[in-house]
Amino acid sequence: MRLKEKKISKLKVVIIGGGIGGAATAVALKNQGIHADLYEQAPVIKEVGAGIGMRPPTVKFFKDWGIYNEIERKSEKSSFMQILTSTGEVLINEEWPLLTNNPEDRWARLIHRADLIDIFFNQLPSESIHLNHKCDSIIDYGDHAEIHFDNGNSVVADLVIAADGIRSTVRSKLFSNVEPVYSHTHAYRAVVEEKETFNLAPDNTFKVFVDGETGNHVYFMPLHHRKQVSFDVTVSSADASWRPEVEKKDILQCLENFDSKIQKIAEKIDNYTCRSIYDIDPLERWHSDCITLLGDAAHAMLHHQGQGANSAIQDGGVLAESIRDAATIPEALQIYQARRKPITDKYQELSRRPPKVEAKTAFPEKSVFETP
Ligand SMILES: Cc1cc2nc3c(=O)[nH]c(=O)nc-3n(C[C@H](O)[C@H](O)[C@H](O)COP(=O)(O)OP(=O)(O)OC[C@H]3O[C@@H](n4cnc5c(N)ncnc54)[C@H](O)[C@@H]3O)c2cc1C
Hints:
Blueprint: H1 5-10, E1 13-16, H2 20-31, E2 36-39, E3 51-54, H3 56-64, H4 68-73, E4 75-78, E5 80-85, E6 90-95, E7 108-112, H5 113-122, E8 129-130, E9 135-140, E10 145-149, E11 154-157, E12 159-162, H6 169-175, E13 181-193, E14 206-210, E15 217-223, E16 228-236, H7 248-254, H8 260-268, E17 273-279, E18 291-293, H9 296-299, H10 308-325, H11 329-350, H12 366-369
């Protein structure tokens, strides 16, 4: 027997975290007639200025949720990815892999993170969004949970979805104290005006320039609909501080083997978002009977396969479908983990492979996930 419709509409669902995973999940639940309250620690919803590639299994959910037209308007279809040397010699030019049963689906949609999160939040009733709420403790009573926030408020819920990122409070309090693993790399990200990119992004090809000597690389993601390009530098670094203080001269030094045009682009940027890059090892379990992890909280992965945000969105879609299909919340959480975890475990492993000049494919995921 399924969770009856009346029961579904009366469920008290709380989402902790208003990043891409939490926001997408609120939209997915709304699409199943489930109201969720979303609690975010920050005073405003703000996303890093950077592009991400939305993949067909993710876009399928956007169609289900009725937001595809808007996504299409605010994104760009890319058909190819290239791996190039740091000086611009093309080593690999490859179509995006086929991850669905539709042979036409060899593409990604390139979108600015802020546009994506805006589209999600525009779907949600404003009274369901609670900013300035940092969850600091959670008590699991088996069939319900009590969540406490640092502003003194607390709420009770039948289901808590912890989408609170790689340093998840909920994960550390309830499931395991898995520590994030430092990748010994930093990412420096910015969005630049297309006209200042020396025609390095003339079409919708997603490019990765790789320095064979240092392993440093530069992602070039065109966002033509915005007349912009997302520019993402990934470099080796021993400094493990989460938000490293990095000066522009340090960034330029990391790029000294790169094409002078790339150096000039980097030189012109004033505001980089600088982050140390961490992931976690796969967890054994994501959920209790009334609390579950989702997105980076459950399976933070490195960015080399471009799958972290995609996975978080797909988690939200699958979780909402599992609640729709199950007889109880514990059963729904079991179905959700069984459907999602084998995939994200694999992506966590694959994502530890950075792009390399000697690589045979731009998409190591092909060997595991490409539809035959
Ligand atoms: C350089 C780089 C490039 C990337 N490129 C891609 C790409 O191309 N494609 C892709 O799919 N993915 C990409 N990713 C990965 C992607 O950014 C993440 O996987 C994704 O943002 C995870 O979303 P999330 O909602 O799970 O977590 P987050 O985005 O971390 O959101 C967590 C939210 O929870 C809030 N929060 C945290 N703790 C609490 C608390 N205690 N109480 C209340 N709120 C809390 C935070 O403020 C935040 O808003 C990239 C990552 C990096 C670093």
